[in-house]
Amino acid sequence: MKKTLVIAAALFAIPSAAMAQDAPFATVNITDLDLSTKAGQDKLDKRMDQAIRRMCRVDGYDAELRRQETACRLAAKADAAPKVAYVIDAARSQRFAAIELDVQG
Description:
- The protein is built from 3 helices and 2 strands; from the N terminus they run βαβαα.
- By secondary structure, it is mainly alpha-helical.
- It has one domain (4-104).
- Strands 1-2 form a two-stranded antiparallel sheet.
- It is elongated.
């Protein structure tokens, strides 16, 4: 089973549906991570930060572009937070379920 997280920059001021379809997104592969451990969660955090930086990168250095980049990063992190929490909780639950099965049988 392929495990990835999809991050979207849910921009709050998208004026049209056509522009909303062009909103940036990124995927983060988590198949090789043990998210029930602190080390796995730290690796996921790093991957998320890198993906968000790449996704929201803008060409230019004027104040408006930097403001847009910052807004994109904040929106992407807000979008990703519940997804990250879900996959970490799922990883912990699976680990505890496996431990229970081992104890019982």
